[in-house]
Each structure stands twice: as structure tokens, then as C-alpha cells.
Amino acid sequence: MSGFQWDWAFTWDVLPMILSAAKVTLLATLLGSIFAIAMGLVFALLRRSKSRTLRTSIYWVVEFIRSTPLLVQIFFLYYVMPEFGVGMSPLATGVFALGLHYGAYLSEVFRSGIDSIEKGQWEAARALNLSLVDTYRDIVLPQAIRPMIPATGNYIIAMFKETPQLSAITLLEMLQIAKIIGSENFRYLEPFTLVGIMYLLFSVIAAYGIYQIEKRFPKEGFSLK
Amino acid sequence: MSAPIIEFHNVKKCFGDTVIFSDFNFKVEENEIVSIIGPSGSGKSTLLRILMTLEGIDGGYINVAGESLWHMLWQGQYVPANSKHLHKMRNHLGMVFQHFNLFPHMTVKRNITEAPMRVKGVSRQEAEAFAEKLLALVGLADKADSYPNDLSGGQKQRVGIARALAMKPSILLLDEITSALDPELVDEVLDVIRNLVKEESFTMLLVTHEMYFAREISDRVCFFDQGAIVEEGDPEVIFTQPKEERTKAFLNAYIGQS
Predict the structure, then answer these.
(1) ipTM of this predicted complex?
(2) Which of A136, A203, B98, B249 could share a disulfide with B176, CB 3.0–4.6 Å?
(3) Nearest CB to A121 within list B101, B114, B118
(4) Architecture of the domain made up of A2-216
(5) Which NCBIfam families match (chain A) (predicted)?
């Protein structure tokens, strides 16, 4: 059995398929991140609401999402929701599940980022009669983004590494494709190794990118002229 | 004589169990400059913060320009003000803070134009033209494109004054505006206020520890202690012939220091 020997010809053969599946993985991560950031912001802002009922319910929603496994959420959205007439494609379901799950984590990051803004900034905004929307958009968020970058980046990389869970709902992402290639050719070494290298490569690049963004971001915050 | 522009009626204010004001009455006439002096913790800053709607009240009522600040009429009854009412009332007031509270991520110009553009819908051109005028007034015409962190404390506070003036308030609240400054920077800030009141008439309420400045600029000085006005009147009288023992002790301590 030659299975234990690395086969370069086979490697080059399957690489294009893995790469094209990598596009699906990256797309799910990208859309998932956008959705997660939006959800995280919504959760974080609602948790600062004046209404105690709203604050408490959002707290429990976030707690619920964080305390149940991602896979359960993915299955629920994919297999249960259609029974209520809400069916989505594997990719859309994946993006939604990743966004919701990581949105719950990110809401805590955003909340602490917003809390890090000095009281004096809020008071100056109020004294100038800025509306709440103006205050968040122009005063608070531009200053709160920098301290949020490292933790947000870590969660996005973590999300990226969790995309194989979407194979459970038949999304043809990298790991799923590697498995298919392996079972069709009776060779798993090369496809799985390639997938591992891909994950390593993308994670390292992303981590470096996040570090660069943080380093270049002005200390005072997103600059407004 | 027209009605006072600011009236406190039996105002009550607590922080938890600590009572700041129990039954506080206070009036300011239009275009009057009133200095509030007194030991720290006596409620001086709280008075300004309540007027700026940064702190609520626990009883009584306050009128600003003839309208209730913290209450509004609803079906013939006074009810706690909603955010729309507070928004309207805040247009009368402007505040300069002890710690400047400039927006560090904005240029000096943007610090000044932000509120007129966002709140009053003034065009960028118009807002910037006014900002330049204000910067010239506070002697910082060349700093429009700088960021607050590149300025000295005195310069920051002058921007703070310009920023408050950009909203054209009829009442200006100055909360210990020189307390966070190095002594050599105090006068450049006070000079701005001196020039300001020379050129325009303002209702001004200032909490200050600069006694000579209070004496020189004010129409009336109030000595505050433990949430009440112990003594008030003409600055010359307060500073040279105070009647109350507590005023004398406070002023003596100050003169002893400086």
C-alpha cells in the first residue's frame, strides 16, 4: 500500500478542488463576520437600553446562544426552521448561524469597548445636544473601535476555524470536499494535509492583518476631520 | 424687570443617601454673571450639571427662560420631561468642562462644527466659517486642523469654550474651567472669558476657585456650603466685608494659600 507515501501528482491534481472549496469557506467566514459584527453591535446597544425588560431579555438571548453548541444551532436552523416555513440554503444557514453565534460573543467585546469611553465624552455630547445616534456614530464608536480590534479579530479567526461544522448541513466547504476526494480515491493524506495547511495559512495571514490594522489605527480613534 | 432666566424652586437632589440639595432656591437674571464659590463637595458643580441636564433632580422644579427644565405640561399636568423636551431646553445652555472633554479623534475645527452641523443642520461651509471666527476669538486661528492631543491644556480649554459658543447658547455654564490647568496657563483662558463678556452680553454661571477673577467679572458672588447659599451679593462686599463666619473662614483660607 502506497498510502503512506506523499504523492505529489495526486496533490497537484486535487489542489484546484480544495482551492475552489476554500472560496466557499472564505465566503462563509466573510459574510458570517459581517453578520456577526452587525448582530454583536445590535446586542451590545440593546443591552445598554433604558428599558430593564429589554436589557434582561437580550442578556438571556446572548447567554442562551453562547451556552448552546454551534452545531445544535446549525442543525436547528437547517432542519427545524423549514418546518415553520423558513428554509434557507446551506450557505445562507451557515452564515446566519455563524453570525448569530459569534454575534453573541462579539456583543460582549463591543459592550466593553463602549464602556471604555470616558464619561466626559458622553457628557460633552449631551451638553452639545447631540442625539443618541449622533453620539454613538460620531463620538463613541470611532473611539471604541481600536480597543475592540484584537478580540474581534480573534473571534473571526475562531469562526473561520469552525466553518467545517457547516459540512454537517452539506455545505461543500474545504473539509467536506477533502473528505469526498479522500473517499473517492482512497487517499486521505494529501487532501486533509492540504486543508490543514490552508487553515494554517489563512489564520496566520488574518492574524497578521489584524495586528497591522490595530497598529495603524490612530490611538485616539477613527479620525474625523 | 423681566422674569429671571434661571429659577430653582425648592429643588431636591440626592446621590444615594447623600443629600446635596434639600430645599434649594436660586435665581439668575438675564445677562447676569454669577460666580459660585465654596468648598469642594458643597454642590457647586452639581448645580451646573443639573442645569445642563447631566443630572436629574429628586424634587422641586427649575425654570429656564420661562419654561420648566425637568418637567413638561401634558394634559394640563406637569410630568417628567421626555427626551424631546430636554433636547429643546438644552438649546438654551452651553457648558465648558473642567477636564475639557474635547473629542480626541476630531480636529479642533470638527470639534466645533460637529454640533451645529448635526443638531442645527447648519451647512458645513457656514459651520466652518463660524468655527474660524470663534477660533480667532479664542486666539487659536492657526490650530483649526490640529488634534486636541497636540494642544496645551490652556489651548484645549479655549477650544472647549469655542465649542460651547458654536451652539450660540444664551446661558453659559463654566464648571471650574481652569482647575485642571497649570497656573501659568490660567490667564490665557480667563482672558478669553474677559473678552467675551466685553463684546457680548451673556448669562453666565461659573463655578470657580479663581477668587480674583470671580471678584472682577461677576455681577454677583454666591458662597456655597453644604448645598445651600450661605451668603451672596456684590463681589466687592462679599470679598471685603463678608458677614457670615463660614464665608470669612473660607476666604481667609484662600487668601492664606495664595
Answers:
(1) 0.94
(2) B98
(3) B101
(4) Orthogonal Bundle (1.10)
(5) ectoine_ehuD, HEQRo_perm_3TM
